[in-house]
Amino acid sequence: MGAQDAPDMNDVGMSATTDSRPVHRVYVDGFWMDKTDVTNEEFAKFVKATSYVTIAERKPRAEDFPGAPPENLVAGSVVFSPPDHAVPLNDHFQWWSYVKGANWRHPLGPQSDIKGKEKYPVVHVALEDAVAYAKWAGKRLSTEAEWEFAARGGLSGKPFVWGDQFRPNGKWMANTFQGKFPVKGTDKGEDGHAGIAPVAQYPPNGYGLYDMAGNVWQWTSDWYRPDYYARLVAVGGVARNPQGPNSPFDPSEPTEKKKVHRGGSFLCTDQYCSRYIVGTRGKGEVSTATNHLGFRCVKDAPVSNRSAGQ
Ligand SMILES: [Ca+2]
Ligand SMILES: [Cu+2]
Question: Does domain 11-37+120-305 have CATH number 3.40.50.2300?
Fold first, then answer.
């Protein structure tokens, strides 16, 4: 588990992948994972059955944002809003905006909708939204270790979930960003998709799982700490079913409670953030959703199946 910097990894403006080292061994019990990210169609069924309202659709409470002007306490979410000219890559506020009225039904804001996008991954889901869906479906979010075990699809120590080359024989294997990041309109979608893609448009990995790299980031159930792997290694031995640290800590934003994201998204590019490389880690504040963040679920395997493999 974990990643070294891959040869094509640049990560301008992002911290290097020191949080994904040292590479170490873990053991996870058997489990089942959804083949794809949860789609708009699936999420709509859940909302219909439960009348669930996502965080992005709720008006922020004044007590949670002391000092915020009341006109800013409006339901919405974070949307990729590319500039039309080159910008320095050390300031992500250049291409992310809080958009009033953006939510899973309106991914780019009130004027947008999801008609015809039934098979696209649901986005603008915060952690508790994903957890609520999983519970309703009789499933749960994966731990970070389970996620990486699944993503590797039986391959060990490879930079990509499909193997060694980013484009084996010239073939695109994941939905990432082409063109000049993050400039508007330069992603012409040489990989088949400019922006978000429906699920399962690229070959599955060795375990039959789709989109374990690129398209949308995925929530896991682990708190984020950059030193978690180092701590596991300090304990020694093979970590069994690690569940993440007991509490979150991100030195770059110490007051924010973050969980681990995995997989990268349609915005990943070797010019900025190569986190389609398996083993690299993302992170996000638990109540923050965006239009490149989704999730999938897992389910425990029956106990008899688990012991069969030992
Ligand atoms: Ca793309
Ligand atoms: Cu990225």
Answer: no
